[in-house]
Amino acid sequence: MTSNRRTFAIISHPDAGKTTLTEKLLLQGGAIHLAGEVKARGQARRARSDWMKIEQQRGISVTSSVMTFERDGVTFNLLDTPGHEDFSEDTYRTLTAVDSAIMVIDAAKGIEPQTRKLFEVCRLRSVPIITFVNKVDREGRPVFELLDEVADMLALDVSPQGYPVGMGGMFQGVLDFATGSVSRPEGPSKEFLGRRDENAELPEDLAEEIELARAGYPEFDIEAYRNGDLTPVYFGSALKNFGVSELIDAIARFAPPPRPQPSDEGPISPERDEVTGFIFKVQANMDPQHRDRIAFMRMVSGTFKRGMKLTPSGSGKPIAVHSPILFFAQDREIADTAEAGDIIGIPNHGTLRVGDTLSEKNAVRFTGLPNFAPEILRRVQLKDPTKTKQLRKALDDLSEEGVIQVFYPEFGAQWIVGVVGQLQLEVLVSRLSAEYKVEAGLEASPFATARWLKGPQAALDSFAEFNRANLARDRDGDMVFMAKSPWDVGYQQEKNPELTFSAIKER
User: Fold this and answer.
1) 268-306: per-residue pLDDT in tens?
2) Which of 251, 405, 410, 500 meets the CB 3.0–4.6 Å disulfide criterion with 255?
3) Where are the beta strands (DSSP E) in 203-361?
4) H and E: helices and strands count for the chain
């Protein structure tokens, strides 16, 4: 059955409360048993989605994880996405693997730049969004102002499903429009115990506001929501575990089951009998003691059975998947079966790469998982020249994951790494040292950007003859023009109309 799967991501600006909400969703789903386990240290840190050393140091998510939990007969696959602005590429790939998203907004800050950027990625794929306005127990902006900002900045219809009764120090609870009841904080500590008070009297001015909210915004329309044109809005406090239950109920009731995925032969339905899927992430060293390498596959169609042979589009050589992994918070289990919408981890040694399609017949290719031209380029300075081979292995591994892109110049011995954000450079240096025991520094590169070259072979050969010093190969061996400035790109495009200088390379 695919209809009981809900595969979704949480998108937000840093500090909007995404990690806390993730924890509370896992708590509600029974995947963890104590609030605080996502952030706990040592043995208690079971459900951590932020597991890498640099994440622990900086307190932000720099990698995407998957966590599966079940509630009331529904299987939820939660894909955690990096919230930091420097990680748009990894986040983009993760969002290709989900069917819906929760957008978390801080009640005091509203739509922030990163939220908007991530929303645009969702819009590219018409991913439906449920909005959760977090931290309503603190001082925040007026409710109508927040709702109108979502509507105006994101060009979405908004449909509030509840309304906060006061905010900050005056906060008394959230009125649920569907039931007409108020979930109230109780007790001297103002901890939210979720008691519903159906006989509550609301102040007259607040009653007028609520009536205006119900009448002034569109009613919830499931088709408009699933088409990506309308967002239902919920209010709560992830920290106080308030409003989270309503949010899970909304995902179960309204969020779409597995959707068809784009391919070179048109959308592939989850009802297709053949087992198909695509790799949207590769993660090395999740368990540093075992030097493991896990490829995350989004199941698109069919019923996968452990031990099946699937063919990756990259190599064309069938592989038997003997130890597929399902992720329950930080715990792993061997998956005997998996359905469309599920995410399974496939241990491998460099066989599988981001963008690979896996299928039984090797006849279909899923599309839409691109590489983006890097915005920052740096030369890699190896501190111990005897470790050249280890460095090459490390750079290949990390480029395979999508942490960096690596370019090998036609002239010159120093390799160049490209990233879409500054923080990835810190991640690179940290992981080279911690996981590969390679000490390296980064220095300025003479190049500002890179473009993939496409065109007739004769035109490529002619271009290469005169621009050898500005050419490199990427990890796949494809030719890349290393430009000193955006002007340089434009100039070469004018001079070489037969060639395409592309800022995106789709796998």
Assistant:
1) 999 999 999 999 888 776 555 555 678 899 999 999 999
2) 251
3) 230-235, 276-284, 293-301, 304-305, 309-312, 319-320, 325-328, 331-334, 337-338, 343-347, 357-359
4) 12, 31
505 labelled binding-site residue: no
Residue 478 marked ligand-binding:
no
pLDDT tens for 16-45 read 888 889 888 888 777 665 544 444 433 333
For residues 206 and 242, state if they share a domain.
yes
Residue 81 annotated as binding site = yes
Query: Is residue 152 included in any domain, yes or no?
Result: yes
Say how far apart CA 282 and CA 298 lie, in whole Å: 12
Could you list the residue range(s) of the whole structural domain that residue 448 is in?
370-506
CATH of the domain at 459: 3.30.70.3280
Task: Answer yes or no: are the C-beta atoms of 199 and 127 closer than 8 Å.
Answer: no
* pLDDT digits 0-9 by tens, 176-218: 888 888 877 664 434 444 455 544 567 788 888 889 999 999 9
Q: 317: annotated binding-site residue?
A: no
> How many whole angstroms from its chain centre is CA 331?
20
Between 408 and 422, the more confident residue is 408
Return the sign of the alpha-carbon dihedral for residues 171, 175, 176, 177: negative
Angle at 433 between CA 430 and CA 437, to 5 degrees: 160
User: Looking at the predicted structure, is the pLDDT value of residue 462 above 80?
Assistant: yes
Is 15 labeled as ligand-binding? yes
